[in-house]
Structures are given as structure tokens and as C-alpha cells.
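hiii so um. not sure if this is the right channel but i have a protein structure encoded as C-alpha cells and i wanna go backwards to a sequence. like what aa goes where. can anyone help
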């Protein structure tokens, strides 16, 4: 049955990691000698990049971060990217290894990665991104008061969750919203709480299913068939890494799938209010450049939100697969993916 929407107001790497060994990109012993660059003589720097899982948003953030570093005076920087495959023990080991290797800077891409890095070192500068709630995750005392060696960017737009819930409430006939999330991830817990808060005063009711690994995601999605009118996958690393299994359930059963970021729209989600993660990573990299050049310390740089506009992205093919009728008036307020 088609779900009809009305009166929308718009706003808009790779490697196996185990405790005994980790994949890396371009890792090499740290060199002390100077290397000639376009700007003259410059010491080689080594950046350890830690990422909890592989998925397009995190991958794009990493690429943006690298670009900002190499385009702003450190074209000879060496990056050692290691993926924890969703395992916190791996994440902690990666961070401890970076600390032991005395890398010049750590790029922590996700909340769990940042927490592990901060546990591993109080001296090496840490720049994080893709973090939902830096204060709640106890990474910093306050957004304007980062730690002595840690700062970064949050991927949270305060209005994103509110807008999505408003979309579901006012533009659909839905009454129940299925939420699949990893209750072991602090960032996911916060987002689900925010969704529930945004539902207050509406007729919407959340139906929550928790998972602990990506292997459980498909079964969790299937458990919601017949129990919910729409699905909403927030920016949860565990679930997003297995998003295709949720998309398959949504497509097979005509359940509109709302997601927390635009990269997940490209992978088959119906719609999201989100930001460009490449730009977010680049923004974080520009902060790191100030530290690497000795202009500032991490303590001097406040944690910030994305420096870009929130946008609505709709996947036309996913809409058809999930039984959603697109409205002509959306043409002026949404970016479409065919």
C-alpha cells in the first residue's frame, strides 16, 4: 500500500584487524630526517587513524581528513589507517599501539575510536570526528573546553532528528517507528533517546530492538515486520555497517526506511537529513593542521558542529521499492538520488 506524504516543510581502508595484527594503509617507521616538499624542508609526520568499522560515511570522513592534511602543508604525511571491525578490544589495542609508536597525531573516526584513543594517551594530540555527543561520551568537559590533547568535530546537527521525526509524524500515516541500534554504543543510545524526546507530543510510538553485532541486524529488522509502520536507523556504526540487510527487509515488506546520514540514502535508505562526511572530515583536518604547525594546541580549539547546511536527500528508487509516493512539491526542497 502506498504511503502518501503531505505539506513537507524542508530544511535541509581496508584491512582485517585482530589482536595479533591489523591492516594498515601506508604504514612505515617514523622518520626523523627532513624531507623536501613543495614548501621546502619539512619533517615527515606520522598520523595514526583509528576507525571502529568500515562504512561509507566514516570512510568519506577519513578521505576528507587526509585531503585537508596533505593540501595544507603536509603532503608527505604518512597515514596508518586501522579498522577495529566493530570490536572494542581491537579498538583499544590499535590506540595503544599508536601510543607506543609515538605517532605525531591520532585521528579517531567514531565515538568508540575516540574513547579508546583518549584512554591510551594523554600526550599525543587526538582529533576526532563522527562523534554524536562528545560531552556525553566523556571525551571533553564541554564543547568550548576540550581536553589537553583532544578536540574535534561532532557529526550531530541538532535539528536533524527533530526534522526526521516531524517528517514521519506530519507527512506519513505512520504510528509506530522501528529503531534498531546497538545499546552498547554510547552514541547510539543518545540518538535513540533524542528520537524518543522528539516524539513527545506526537502520536508516534517507538519500537526498539537492540543488537550487539552487525550479524544480528538482519534478524532484528525481520523481528519488526508487522509491528512497525516505518524504520529509522540512526547513526549507529554497528547497524549502518550492515545496512543492506535492513534495506532488503524494508524493500520486501514496503516499509519506508529513514536513515541518519545521506550516505545511507545512497545505499538504499529512503530519506535522511544529513551532512557531507567528506566535508566534515576536511573540517577536522584543518583543525589538525593548526596543531601540526604549532599554531595551537588541542586545548585551544573548541569542539564544533558541522560547518555546512543540513540537507534533505531522497532516494527515488528506494521510495519505489518501499512503497512511498513522491510528492511534486518536494522538488524544490530535496536533493534526489535516482
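sure thing!! here u go:
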Amino acid at each position: 500500500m502506498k504511503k502518501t506524504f503531505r505539506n513537507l516543510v524542508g530544511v535541509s581502508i581496508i584491512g582485517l584487524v585482530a589482536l595479533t595484527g591489523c591492516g594498515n594503509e601506508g604504514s612505515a617507521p617514523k622518520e626523523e630526517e627532513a624531507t623536501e616538499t613543495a614548501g621546502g624542508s619539512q619533517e615527515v609526520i606520522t598520523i595514526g587513524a583509528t576507525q571502529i568499522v568500515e562504512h561509507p560515511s566514516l570512510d568519506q570522513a577519513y578521505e576528507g581528513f587526509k585531503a585537508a592534511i596533505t593540501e595544507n602543508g603536509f603532503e608527505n604525511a604518512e597515514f596508518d589507517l586501522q579498522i577495529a571491525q566493530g570490536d572494542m578490544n581491537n579498538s583499544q589495542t590499535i590506540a595503544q599501539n599508536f601510543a607506543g609508536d609515538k605517532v605525531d597525531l591520532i585521528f579517531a573516526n567514531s565515538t568508540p575510536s575516540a574513547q579508546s584513543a583518549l584512554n591510551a594517551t594523554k600526550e599525543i594530540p587526538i582529533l576526532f570526528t563522527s562523534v554524536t555527543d562528545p560531552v556525553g561520551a566523556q571525551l571533553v568537559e564541554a564543547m568550548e573546553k576540550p581536553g589537553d590533547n583532544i578536540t574535534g568535530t561532532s557529526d550531530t546537527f541538532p535539528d536533524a532528528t527533530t526534522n526526521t521525526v516531524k517528517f514521519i509524524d506530519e507527512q506519513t500515516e505512520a504510528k509506530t517507528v522501528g529503531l534498531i541500534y546497538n545499546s552498547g554504543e554510547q552514541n547510539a543510545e543518545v540518538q535513540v533517546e533524542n528520537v524518543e524526546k522528539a516524539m513527545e507530543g506526537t502520536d508516534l510510538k517507538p519500537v526498539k530492538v537492540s543488537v550487539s553485532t552487525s550479524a544480528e541486524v538482519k534478524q532484528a529488522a525481520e523481528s519488526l515486520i508487522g509491528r512497525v509502520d516505518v524504520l529509522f536507523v540512526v547513526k549507529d556504526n554497528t547497524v549502518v555497517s550492515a545496512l543492506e540487510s535492513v534495506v532488503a527487509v524494508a524493500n520486501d515488506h514496503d516499509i519506508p526506511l529513514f536513515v541518519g546520514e545521506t550516505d545511507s540514502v545512497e545505499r538504499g535508505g529512503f530519506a535522511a537529513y544529513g551532512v557531507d562526511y567528506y566535508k566534515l572530515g576536511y573540517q577536522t583536518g584543518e583543525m589538525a593542521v593548526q596543531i601540526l604547525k604549532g599554531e595551537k594546541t588541542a586545548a585551544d580549539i573548541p569542539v564544533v558542529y558541522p560547518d555546512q547546511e543540513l540537507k534533505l536527500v531522497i532516494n527515488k528508487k528506494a521510495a519505489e521499492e518501499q512503497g512511498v509516493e513522491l510528492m511534486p512539491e518536494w522538488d524544490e526542497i530535496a536533493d534526489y538520488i535516482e
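oh and Residues 17 and 84 are 6 Å apart (CA to CA).
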